[in-house]
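Data availability (excerpt). The following record was deposited with the supplementary files.
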Amino acid sequence: MCFPYNKTVAMLAVLMLSGCEDQAALRNADNPPSPPAARMTEFGPGTEDATITQHPYMDNRHAINEGKRLYSWFNCTGCHAHGGGGMGPPLMDKQWIYGSEPAQIFASIMEGRPNGMPAFHGKIPEQEVWKIVAYVRSLGGLSKDLPAGASSRPLQEQAESDKREVKTP
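Predicted structure:
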């Protein structure tokens, strides 16, 4: 007499336990975990994150020339022009809104800036960004990026001639 009753109770217990597992899955489907909150930083020159290690292309003339090529390739000339003096913030002087240290320039390129500077994080490999940093610093005459005894003048003169040169498609 007890046998059919025990079988029914066992069957109900199995069904109830299997149903509990499905409920947990449904609860997670309705309430997915929230994405991590964006970290806010103060608006000012550079960022706290701009404490990146030393510029890997310091004193590397070849990297500056590669940076110039990449500067054109990634259309930095669209806003900053060939010599660094377009409608975007000028790159030819020594004092910049977000800082002129290599790590600050790197952060500006990777993270972007308000009012027009797009973020290139994930679009340009970091090693290429550092080459662009080397070139951009040379535009401002920040000669720390040039080998001892070299002058940034030839790069500035080349940038001026690039601006005057009319290029047609």
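Summary of structural features: Confidence is low (pLDDT under 50) at residues 147-153.
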